[in-house]
Amino acid sequence: MHMLALLTDGLGGEGGIGRYNRHLLSALAHSNSIAGITVLPRFAAQADVDGKIDHLAPSSGRLAWCLRALRLALTSRPDIIFCGHIYAAPLAAALAQARSAKLWLQVHGIEAWERPRRPIIDAVERADLVTSVSRYTRRRLLEWSNVDPASVRVLPNTLTGGYAPRPRRPDLVARWGLEGKKTILTVGRLASGERYKGHDRIIAALPAVAARVPSVVYLVVGSGDDMERLRQLSLDVNICDRVIFAGQVPQDELADHFALADVFAMPSAGEGFGIVFLEAAACGLPIIGGDRDGSVDALADGRIGRLVDPLSQEQIVAALIAALNGGQKPFPEAAQRFAFQNFASHVDALLQNFVR
Amino acid sequence: MCGVNGIYAYHYAANPVDRAELFRTRDHMAARGPDASGEYFSQEGRVGLGHRRLSIIDLSENGAQPMASRDGRFVVTFNGEIYNYRELRAALEHKGFVFHSQSDTEILLHLYADKGEAMVHELRGMFAFAIWDAARGVMFLARDPYGIKPLYYSDDGWTFRFGSQVKALLAGGAISRDPDSAGAVGFYLFGSVPEPFTTCRSIRALPAGATLLVDCTGAKAPQRYYSIAEVYRDALSTPRKNTDDLRIALLDSVRSHLVADVPVGAFLSSGIDSGALVGLMRDAGAPNIQTVTIGFEEFRGKLEDETSLAAEVARLYETRHTTRFVSRAEFEADLPRILDAMDQPTIDGVNTWFVSKAARELGLKVAISGLGGDELFGGYPSFRDLPRWAQAFSLPSRIPFLGLGTRKLLAPLTGFFGLSPKAAGMLEYGGSYAGAYLLRRGLYMPWELEAVLDRETIVQGLRRLAPLRLIDAELRSAPSNPFARVATLESTLYMRNQLLRDTDWASMAHSLEVRTPLADRTLLARLSRIKLNENEGKVALASAPSRPLPEAIIDRPKTGFTTPIDGWLRSSPSFRHVPIRAAETPQWARIWSRMVGAEASLNRHALENLATL
């Protein structure tokens, strides 16, 4: 079977969606059922990909991208059209119908939680297979669409990249001044459009945590246009000396930053899944996440980390204190359920069951 | 006859089965199976099955469930009865299968091993079961052709759960309680929640006559293996048989439904269906039949009174007969338990509650019911009305905006002229079988729903439910014959979603198994080939026993099974909490629906609005 993959973020992208696409298409390329995949991305660079994958140059202009998709659908005669973002679903559905191809739609997080425009709803309801990164996103999608629940399956993010417990790097300890400190870590974008992640709620909790754990500091890894607001917030609650904004760190230093922390906390209320929880867990950290979104899947209903109500200051404070005092055991092996091998064999099973 | 449940953590990311959750769901159904309970957990912890047993066939430990095959490959949890299990057993033994019990449950294990999913075509009976096939990593579920036994399931994307009751699944604690607008709208349109919808978005009914497969990618779409419409269609293309065959077919069904290792009693009213069945039970050799009739003091000496004619039938067939009177005080005392036992909201079931209670008080575990006779023999007014309406309004309903305009004009006036609110919709809906059916059976019409539901729920619910499409879907394979079309609709909608479901929860709450020989696939296949003129069917049924029913029963005007609940409800303390506009004088079913809907939290907003009027 030949697949035409219409993506927003190409396989070289380092954002969550780009990485997911890379893992998914790699898994598909490994399947014996797939003869070839033509990838048409809108953004992000070329990646080093499997020989079955023809990764075209991106077209960031919407119209140009649509026209190229149309031309590819007409010329490459795909058996499956994979649509990597719900906003492109109407185009993908029209092309699939015109070419009598199967339609596979991927949904991630908040973009699929609220009722979208009518053409998108219609397109979703015409999909042969919808894969969602979490049970939560699936449930939200089923709230507004009449799609057959049997064709909406969960395909979680997968853990790759050699995350494992490791010793603290003294140079990083020194760089961030963490010697003798108990460290809370959050890794994530600081975007004003993604304030749901809960950095502000941890900052607000810090005075109460510091009262019980005097050596506590909060290491914030990530950058974005919300950093100034967070910095101001830490001034407001008078704990700016305990909050360290590390900015974005290189991918190859990420695991070393996990190793610096005593607990990874991200009481988010807007995660589609939250792959960063798994990376932190695999590095041997106790994890704290929210119980109102896809984080519940990443934390495997509490088996990989502790679930708190992200809107409850009280619960966040209690969980942080418990974790910093050694009251929460890490489960690095529990995150291995999300290993690529499991992911890939599930992708193959979905392919056999739904779009063959 | 039991309660079943199970959990399959099919996704690689899912946690192993939570044993405590399995037990919470299973033991919520203690009344369905008071005699024993059992459980099975697969070695790797990905599968759990639960069972509550009401012992009826093979009362020994050999019949305990969940039951595994000797090699451990197949495990079954089963609710129901397989009436042809002796024939199936003989055939399987002939093929070399070795049996270790006398139960009908074991048949399912061997039949699945022999025929796989096609096994369902061999089964005569009422059933809902799940078979775990460890070698294939597949769970197979099936429900009987009529939907006599319930089966609900939920698939959250990681874990599949099933159970005999919606409330039991919720008691497990792992399933979202988010309401389903289609369930709420369906309840107020039809008076019961039409399958596959339930009041919870995360829980669906496995449709009657359907199977379901769950593998490592989750629950597939249900596959229909039986269609009442197709039975009628196929019958019309085969040579017709004569009415002599009717008695043979009826007696065969009754005889099959008597298979049990405990005494089988019968509900007896003053109608033809239950009376004829008791006569046929006697012909089939049932000894010393216990019959039971419900009576109400309020009806003594009135047309609605069933007790004296029922007693006459009991005398005719020499049964041990009990008339059990239900008082208003008993109704009010039982009302909280009725609402608690009611698995899905419904406007019926109270009568079955009391007759089942009475049967259980008499020590019965199994009772025969005449349910299905009106669908089989055309006993409802719909058999007359639907074809007439569909023909008369066929043309006007096709004129654009005529129906809609007429309805908008007339709807505010119907109350003034003392007409049913439905009258306003005759032009708009009456021109098709689906529309006419909604008019005939509907509790509220779509344009009346704002009295009970908020606008958002109505809009979303109507879109999800698509009521006319839902009704029409049942006619997809139906022949053009008017009787066959109405019989199909009544059997697949009213009987399935209302009568059978209500019979299940109301009887199981008293640990009583109700059997319905007139809702039987073999009987339907035979009767659909017999040509009967209008009204001939019921007369033929009345004459089927070797001692026919007396003329008084046949000539009695049809009243249905009525109760004085209307009056009781209007003066009940519970009723005071049901907000009714001062100008409204709703029929009792609508009052009841609001009480039940409030209990199920379907209509919170609308009731709050009404309460302020």
From TrEMBL, chain A:
Keywords from the named record: Glycosyltransferase, Transferase
Q: Superkingdom, according to UniProt?
A: Bacteria
Q: Where is the Glycosyl transferase family domain?
A: 178-328
Family assignment? Answer: Belongs to the glycosyltransferase group 1 family. Glycosyltransferase 4 subfamily.
Q: Where is the Glycosyltransferase subfamily 4-like N-terminal domain?
A: 15-157
> What's the short name of a Pfam family annotated to this entry?
Glyco_transf_4
Enzyme Commission no: 2.4.-.-
Checking CDD domains in the record gives: GT4_PimA-like
Q: What is this protein called?
A: Glycosyltransferase family 4 protein
Q: Which organism is it from?
A: Methylocystis borbori
What molecular functions are annotated in GO for this chain?
A: glycosyltransferase activity
UniProtKB/TrEMBL annotation, chain B:
From the UniProt record, give the pathway where this protein acts. Answer: Amino-acid biosynthesis; L-asparagine biosynthesis; L-asparagine from L-aspartate (L-Gln route): step 1/1
Query: What are the UniProt keywords, alphabetically?
Result: ATP-binding, Glutamine amidotransferase, Ligase, Nucleotide-binding
The record, for Gene3D superfamilies, names: Glutamine Phosphoribosylpyrophosphate, subunit 1, domain 1 (3.60.20.10), HUPs (3.40.50.620)
Q: What SUPFAM superfamilies would the database entry show?
A: Adenine nucleotide alpha hydrolases-like, N-terminal nucleophile aminohydrolases (Ntn hydrolases)
Entry's EC annotation:
6.3.5.4
- The answer, when asked if Iron-sulfur is one of the entry's keywords, is no
Root EC class = ligase
Q: Where would I find the Glutamine amidotransferase type-2 domain in this sequence?
A: 2-217
The UniProt record lists the keyword tRNA-binding: no
Catalytic activity, per the record?
L-aspartate + L-glutamine + ATP + H2O = L-asparagine + L-glutamate + AMP + diphosphate + H(+)
Please list the GO terms describing molecular function: asparagine synthase (glutamine-hydrolyzing) activity
Q: Which InterPro entries did the record assign? A: Asn_synth_AEB, Asn_synthase, ASN_synthetase/amidase, AsnB_N, GATase_2_dom, Ntn_hydrolases_N, Rossmann-like_a/b/a_fold
Instruction: Give the record's family classification.
Output: Belongs to the asparagine synthetase family.
Checking PANTHER family in the record gives: ASPARAGINE SYNTHETASE (PTHR43284:SF1), ASPARAGINE SYNTHETASE (GLUTAMINE-HYDROLYZING) (PTHR43284)
| Name assigned to this protein | asparagine synthase (glutamine-hydrolyzing)
Q: Which organism is it from?
A: Methylocystis borbori
